[in-house]
Amino acid sequence: MTMPDPAPTTLDRADSRLHHDDSLTGAVHAFVARMRTGDLGILPVAIGLVVITVVFTALNPVFVAPANLVNLLFDCATVGFIALGVVCVLMLGEIDLAIGSMSGLASAIVGVLWIQAGLPIGIAIIAAIAVGAVMGLVYALLLVHLGMPSFVSTLAGLLALLGMQLYILGSTGSINLPYASGFVHFGQLMVMPAWVAYILALVPGVAMLVTKLRVARRRRAAGLAAGSLTLLIIRVAITTVALVAAVWYLNLGRGVPWIFGLFVAAVVALDYALKRTKWGRSMFAIGGNREAARRAGINIRRITITAFMLCSSLAAVGGVLGAARLASASRQAGTGDVNLNAIAAAVIGGTSLFGGRGSAWSALLGILVIQAISNGLTLLNLSSSLRYMITGAVLAIAVIVDSLARASRQTHGRG
Amino acid sequence: MAEATGGRPQAGEVLLRLTGISKNFGAVQALTDIELEVRAGEVVALVGDNGAGKSTLIKILAGVHPQSAGRIEFMGREVTIDNPAAALSMGIATVFQDLALCENLDVVANLFLGHEMNPWQLDEVAMEVRAWTLLQELAARIPSVREPVASLSGGQRQTVAIARSLLLDPKIIMLDEPTAALGVAQTAEVLNLIERVRDRGLGVIVISHNMEDVRAVADRIVVLRLGRNNGEFTAEASNEDLVAAITGATENAVSRRSARHAARHPASEASA
Ligand SMILES: Nc1ncnc2c1ncn2[C@@H]1O[C@H](COP(=O)(O)OP(=O)(O)OP(=O)(O)O)[C@@H](O)[C@H]1O
Ligand SMILES: [Mg+2]
């Protein structure tokens, strides 16, 4: 060996070719380098949100008013839940086109069982979600046993579920839910008390600090490099300040909706499952290289089944929340642009259509973009025809960014 | 000078015995009536020309394809290996010719794929430490185990695939052209490694087109030709015999080439 290694400090930094710079400028350089190779992360959507906010505020200042933003968050949760499910199937490189119909059917089930049959609301909700789980199971079984492509089976599901929704709603076509019920309150009115919202705003920063410090201690004990403390503190500080500021601003209006809190909690849970569990690792592996995942001994069928069941169940949850939000279960629920908005949200947020790349947070970021556009256009009194066209264009842009980023990652050897 | 179907160099327990293994892909008869035996503490080299069926045989044992006919006995019991998980849990580890890595995942994730530590809260620190230890054993030159595998060189990927096969403490390791993309030092390390795992009592099946490497480590050399057994040799077998078994003729491209070479440089060919 001709080139002696520098005194190896830690196990993972022994190689002389590896750049590591723990300073702030080092972190910035690493970030820029990642972007250039097509590892875009949340940057496009962050830029998109800023642009949207600036444009709509310039056209109508009401857009950034606290009251409007609170409404926007109320609207995010329903399609947001559906988008969260879409992330699961996209991760495998599959698709579920029946999510809109599924959410519509779920809202109809809640209406029929709760109002018409007089069952407790809890039972009605569980039944709706169970139907979602069963539908997901059906698509998955058709895929893994018969090799039926998911876009075909779910396209069939789209029609069948829509038919079922119309069938169980019967000739009236619409069931009104009582405004005075806690269920509708949850969808329309319930906001967190200010102190709860502030405490919840502090939780991410504290959690980040505690877990990262614990990991750093374990890494040092194991002889691995532990990353910079300054950088961690800066990140924690930025997160906390941003969240507290957001809560303060929303509290100028009605406050932070519980329904949005529920959605964020689901995002956090799915994020944990995808990043920190064996199940999530298998999802990424199957989306990245199905055959390699199979040869590593991963049970592809089981993972595929869980992904589709999760997707349809989350679509059902979205439908249930939609019923609460609108205080009705109608023929229109889940139709129109719901399907596309949910898929677009996941893709805009950075989950790849090609599988193996994405995150639960993309559902949150993507739905914020979609709802912001829809809300902004409504404030401008634009008709839904224009809204559809603009949302379609945004989806096209997101897919183009995804494709270009993928090509760039491939030429830069980053999968 | 050794002859076909030569003796058994090592007296160990028979780990794996294949009888009458056949495999067809539609109209293509990839393997016909293959016999193979692997003992504990033995390195068996599988050689043969391109398309001879070596990888297909390995894949049957790894559970990638089921065999069309024939018996597989593992540790004295007849077994069916119908999926890769079954092969892995029996203790059959494989380095595939195409490596079978997930390019979107980093090195640690690939090493532990399907066998992560602590399934409900992945233990990244412990996995990373184990990854570095394994890779150092292989003298791997990998700058970072937290980069996606897509960014590694061919040889680095091969090292990752080899390291992965060692992770689960297998009874048999099958390596399909493990040194094809490796540098000088890394090839030597892999050959050393093969000897080390043999000395630990594992059975090793290694496929290689490099006769020098094959002779260096193999206890027995099994030749496949057009999907059939075509002789078994010891490491001392002469080059002509091996080449003849591989190509199926004493008069072949390799012998003609070396004859031409000998005519031009009479001295250098005296001992081959
Ligand atoms: N999945 C498959 N489908 C159809 N035919 C296949 C398949 N896999 C292998 N074959 C055929 O089986 C034969 C043996 O292929 P195999 O990959 O086992 O060869 P090999 O000995 O490993 O060759 P090499 O030295 O080039 O790697 C070839 O004729 C090949 O075309
Ligand atoms: Mg081969």
Strand content of chain A: under 5%
**Which CATH architecture of the largest domain in chain A is right?**
Orthogonal Bundle
**Strand tally of chain A:** 2
Oligomer: heterodimer
* Bound ligands: adenosine-5'-triphosphate, magnesium ion
Please tell me the overall pLDDT of chain A.
90
Low-confidence stretches of chain A are: 1-8
Largest sheet composition of chain A: 2 strands, antiparallel
> Taking strands numbered 1, 2, ... along the chain, how are they ordered across the largest sheet of chain A?
1-2
Q: Tell me the count of domains of chain A.
A: 2
Report the top-level CATH class of the largest domain in chain A: Mainly Alpha
Instruction: Kindly report how far apart the N and C termini of chain B lie.
Output: 12 Å
Q: What is the CATH architecture assignment of chain B?
A: 3-Layer(aba) Sandwich
| Low-confidence spans of chain B | 1-11, 268-272
Number of strands of chain B: 10
Q: In CATH terms, what is the fold-level topology of chain B?
A: Rossmann fold
- What is Rg of chain A? 23 Å
Strand order of the largest sheet of chain B: 6-7-8-3-9-10
Count up the helices of chain A: 16
Helix content of chain A: over 70%
**Greatest interface and its participating residue counts:** A-B, 39 and 42 residues
